[in-house]
Amino acid sequence: MEYRNLGSTGLKVSQVSLGANNFGWFADEESSIKVINYALEVGINFIDTADIYDHGNSETFIGKALKGKRDKVLIATKSSGPMGDGPNDRGSSRYYMMRAVEASLKRLQTDYIDFYQMHFPDPQTPIEETLRALDDLVHSGKVRYIGCSNYAAWQLSDALWTSRTHNLHSFATNQVRYNLLDRAIESELVPCCVAHDVGIIPWFPLSAGFLTGKYRKGEERPADGRLSGPSPAGPPGNRAYDIFFTDSNFEKLAVWESFAKKHGHSMVELAIAWLLSKPYVSTVIAGARKVEQLKDNIAAVDWKLSAADIAEFEAAEKGIKG
Question: Catalytic one among 3, 38, 53, 178?
Answer without folding.
Answer: 53
